[in-house]
């Protein structure tokens, strides 16, 4: 088993320098090349930082996300909100943390005490992340968890969200609804698909008619293009639209506004997420709030709990969604 002295001898530095470097001691004054060399040697020797020491030191967490998640705030308000919650708890608890795009993980060599998987990755991507980071303390904030017996899970109930949205439309008299949504990840099963629960609601309510289904990417530009395609196919204006997320809904509202189709007097629209840009959409968007800020906070709390108490079981925390009634849904006038 490798020791600090082994790393020190190979790196040409003292044992204490190696110890402080691997612990990310902010007061350690060494060059970038030396620091990199120490981490590379430690990884090559498969050196593991002793867990018992971590209890009295600042833990190091890494948050892995998709490469595009922090580029566009309108399309990724979900992730910006979760990030705010993550950062707040890390600062409160004096936790060292880094946000790493999955595309950069191949070159990431620093030892970590825990990892948070932020977003919906494929099973292959989750396996890659776990293999690279080599930590038993892992939490995912996502709609699916491929390893519920190994990874803590912060999530929301997709069935509840879709049902809540559709019931709101139904209770206001809407019986004709179109579906606009983003593609599911390739490994997504029916039980984690919003389209599945939309169809289930339609099947359970014989008086409700589905006017059509449009699927595309998850952003506002995709919503814009899907709505344009709807009209390009000379389909009628849907009296009500269910949308799988807020960014797509914002893109749809742009097309409707451009065409002079008033929301909600002509078309009512409801979506899922509770993103902040929905407040300033025109009109403000009625949505199902899944409380991403709170989920971000809960993810770090769970990760710290795993590290400190060495639990021999995993946790699933499901946040209860809330209907936010704004101005994009109205009573259906017969």
From TrEMBL:
It comes from the Bacteria. Coiled coil: none annotated. Keywords: DNA-binding, Transcription, Transcription regulation. Residues 2-48 form the HTH lacI-type domain. PROSITE patterns: HTH_LACI_1 (PS00356), HTH_LACI_2 (PS50932). GO terms for molecular function: DNA-binding transcription factor activity; transcription cis-regulatory region binding. This is Transcriptional regulator, LacI family. Pfam families: LacI, Peripla_BP_3. InterPro entries: HTH_LacI, LacI/GalR-like_sensor, Lambda_DNA-bd_dom_sf, Peripla_BP_I. It comes from Lachnoclostridium phytofermentans (strain ATCC 700394 / DSM 18823 / ISDg). CDD domains: HTH_LacI, PBP1_GalR. The lineage of its organism: Bacteria, Bacillati, Bacillota, Clostridia, Lachnospirales.
């Amino acid at each position: 088993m490798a020791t600090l002295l082994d790393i020190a001898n190979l790196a040409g530095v003292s044992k204490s320098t190696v110890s402080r470097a691997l612990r990310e001691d902010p007061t350690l004054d060494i060059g970038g090349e030396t620091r990199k060399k120490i981490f590379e040697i430690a990884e090559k020797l498969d050196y593991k930082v002793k867990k018992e020491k971590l209890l009295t030191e600042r833990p190091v967490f890494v948050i892995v996300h998709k490469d595009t998640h922090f580029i566009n705030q309108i399309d990724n308000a979900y992730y910006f909100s979760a990030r705010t919650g993550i950062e707040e708890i890390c600062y409160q608890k004096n936790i060292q943390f880094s946000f790493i795009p999955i595309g950069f993980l191949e070159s990431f060599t620093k030892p970590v005490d825990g990892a948070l998987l932020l977003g919906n990755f494929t099973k292959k991507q989750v396996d890659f992340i776990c293999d690279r980071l080599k930590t038993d303390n892992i939490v995912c904030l996502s709609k699916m968890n491929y390893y519920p017996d190994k990874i803590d899970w912060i999530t929301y109930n997709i069935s509840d969200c879709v049902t809540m949205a559709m019931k709101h439309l139904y209770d206001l008299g809407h019986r004709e609804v179109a579906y606009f949504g983003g593609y599911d990840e390739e490994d997504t099963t029916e039980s984690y698909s919003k389209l599945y629960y939309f169809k289930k609601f339609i099947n359970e309510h014989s008086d409700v008619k589905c006017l059509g289904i449009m699927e595309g990417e998850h952003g506002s530009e995709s919503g814009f293009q899907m709505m344009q395609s709807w009209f390009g196919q000379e389909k009628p204006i849907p009296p009500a639209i269910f949308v799988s997320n807020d960014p797509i809904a914002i893109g749809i509202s742009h097309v409707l506004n451009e065409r002079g189709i008033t929301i909600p007097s002509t078309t009512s629209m409801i979506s899922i997420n509770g993103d902040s840009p929905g407040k300033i959409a025109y009109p403000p968007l009625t949505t199902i709030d899944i409380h991403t800020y709170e989920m971000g906070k809960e993810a770090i709390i769970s990760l710290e709990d795993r590290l400190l108490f060495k639990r021999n079981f995993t946790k699933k925390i499901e946040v209860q969604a809330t209907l936010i009634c704004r101005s994009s849904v109205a009573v259906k006038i017969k």
